[in-house]
Structure formats: structure tokens, C-alpha cells
Amino acid sequence: MDSNGTVKDVLPGILQHNVSNSTDPDSPSSPLSPIRNQLAQRRSFDADPLDKLLRKNKTWSASRISEDPEYFNRLCTQQAPEYLWIGCSDSRVPANAILGLEPGEVFVQRNVGNQATHTDLNCMSCLEYSVKELKVRNIILCGHYGCGAVRAALKMPSKTHNLVNCWISDIRECRNQHRAELMALPNLEAQTDRLCELNVLRQTFHVCTSPVVQSAWDRGQSLHIYGVIYSLKDGLIKKLVGPISKSGDFAHDQATFEQRGNSFVGYDSVDRERMVEELSPVGGSYRSRVDAVNAYINTMEVNNRIAQHVGWTEDFTATEAKSTVASAAAVAADVATLAVSAAH
Ligand SMILES: [Zn+2]
Question: What does the note accompanying the cofactor annotation read (predicted)?
Fold first, then answer.
């Protein structure tokens, strides 16, 4: 303390201050007054965003109960969604809202760029829980046009130091794989939108080849995978691929792999046009028929990639190993020959 007082002199004053305030809550120096002032300020300026949300939440809860008094009781005792949604964190693409689904109807995983890489423990845990425990019947991987994560994969220099740059590396790899196609497009917007679609196909493939989904199919579990894309411009969802519902028949996978080799089924623009033409009797707009043909071809291609992925068997590994052993033996023989000739 300074020369004007000692601890002994000052402490009773502080205690007295607190005692007097606690007995007079209306005093301006009361410890309650800052809280009261803050509340008054919020009431007048609506300064706390959470207050606004809590009020909306109360209204929502009350309206649900008034429509159906058992609504929350039912949700408490059961969760049985038919769908798992893997989508982008973008605030404009909320699963329940754009699908018109109620709470309890869709299990949701969202992250930046709607990715489903096998090293993402969050996404894979969510996938495992929804497939093994909730027994969802459909998995929907949804991208959206104009996605910022996808645009960053095209624009952000790879040396940029930030976590987002690390996070989007799988999308960047997708970009690299389709470089020629993307480079032929006229501008960044067109490239972004196409890469958004390609990213959906890639991430759908990751879902299909995840150990969780593969073993579910092996067990005979009914599980259908779709890849779709959402347009911010009109709020509509378009199917890009699916349903992929393979039983995980290993023999079939291997046969497909051997039959098709390492090349994908190729469909050039002429084939697509012909297929669109053949769909004419089905009706619908030209655009909808093009979309249907594209989804069909995408599904064939993703199925083919899955077959290649899971068709890689012990046989291939063994062949590889045999050739390695043979090479090692040959090297050993050469060394032995050299040693013998050196000895002479
Ligand atoms: Zn996005």
C-alpha cells in the first residue's frame, strides 16, 4: 500500500462497500447494476445476437408443441433417419431446409468443400455411426456450384500458409487430374463450377470405397450412394451420380477389373449426343435428358473406378511380390557370380 493507508485501513472500507451494495440493489454502485444496465441496453438495442436467436427458438419450440404435443417426446426416444448427408459448411446449403426435411430425418456431416477423405476422422466416424448404428439406407454427397473451397483450389497459391490450403489438398488433386478439361474452359467461374462437379464424383468415390461402406455392402446391407450438386441460383439439386448400390460381390469386382483393365469406360461427346437422342421418347426437356445421360455415364465410371479399387486382390499383390522376389533372386545370383569370378 502507499503511504496514505495500510491494508488494515483499506480492507474494512472495501468490505463495507460490498455489504452496503448487497443490501441496496438499487444503488448505482450496486454489483447488480452492471448486469441490470447491460440487460437494459440489450433490450433497447437488441445488441446480443444470441438473445435474438433464443427468442426465435422459443417461438419455434412453442409452435411445434402447439401443433403436436408429443413432438419432442417422440424425437427424444428415437433417431432413425433414412439419409446421411455429406455437404459443404456453406451457410447457404443447409441440408434440412433445402430438402424440406424435419429434425430426425437426416443425419448430417458438413465440412469445407463437402469432402469425404478416408483420413478425416470426423467424417469417417460420422459415416461409421450412421451406417452401422443408425442403419441409414441412403448417403447423399452434395456439392454446390460456386463453392469457395473449390475456387480456392483453383486460385490459391499452393505455398499459401493456412489450414484451409491444407484442407483442400484433395480438391487440388482432383483439379490436377482433370487439368486438360478445366484449362479448356473459358473462365474461372466455369472452371469452378466444373471442378465442383468433379469434386462431387471424387468424394462420392471416397464414400463408396471407405471400409465402412465396403463392409456394409459385404454384409448385404442395403445402402445406396448418390452424388448431387446444388445450385445457389435456383435452389435446385441435380443428380450427378448414383445410385451406387453394389453388393460388394468380390468375384464381380475382380472380373470387372480384369475385363476393363486400367482404362475407364470412355464416352465421347458423340456417344452422349446419341444417348440423349435415344432418350427422346422418354420425354422431358433436352437439358433434363442430358443430365440423365451424364448421371448414367458418371455412375458407370465411378462403378468402374470402385471395381478397380476393390478388385486389387492378393493375386495382384502376389504377382508383384513374386516379381520382386524373382528380381531379388536374380540380383543375388549376379552377385554370387561376380563373387565367384572375383575369387578366381
Ligand atoms: Zn462450399
Answer: Binds 1 zinc ion per subunit.
pLDDT of residue 255: 61
Give pTM, 2 decimals. Answer: 0.75
88 is in an annotated binding site: yes
Annotated catalytic residue within 36, 55, 92, 287: 92
Assign 3-state DSSP to the chain and report helix, strand, coil percentages, each to 5. 60, 10, 30
Q: Are strands 106-111 and 224-230 parallel, antiparallel or unpaired?
A: unpaired
Among this protein's residues, is 144 annotated catalytic? yes
Q: Is 137 a catalytic residue?
A: no
pLDDT above 50 (res 17)? no
CA of 183 to the centre of ligand 1 (A): 21
* Neighbouring C-beta atoms of residue 63, cutoff 10 Å: 11
Q: Is 90 a catalytic residue?
A: yes
Say if residues 293 and 272 touch (Cβ distance below 8 Å). yes
Catalytically annotated residue among 123, 126, 144, 174? 144
Give the chain's length: 344
For residue 4, the CA-to-ligand 1 centroid distance in Å is 64
For 71-111, what is each residue's pLDDT tens digit? 999 999 878 999 999 999 999 999 999 999 999 999 999 99
**Residue 192's closest CA among 241, 239, 145?**
145
**3-state secondary structure string across the chain:** CCCCCCHHHHHHHHHHHHHHHHHCCCCCCCCCHHHHHHHHHHHHHCCCHHHHHHHHHHHHHHHHHHHCCCHHHHHHHCCCCCEEEEEECCCCCCHHHHHCCCCCCEEEEEECCCCCCCCCHHHHHHHHHHHHHCCCCEEEEEEECCCHHHHHHHHCCCCCCCHHHHHCHHHHHHHHHCHHHHHCCCCHHHHHHHHHHHHHHHHHHHHHHCHHHHHHHHCCCCCEEEEEEECCCCCCEEEEEEEECCCCCHHHHHHHHHHHCCCCCCCCHHHHHHHHHHCHHHCCCHHHHHHHHHHHHHHHHHHHHHHHHHCCCHHHHHHHHHHHHHHHHHHHHHHHHHHHHHHC
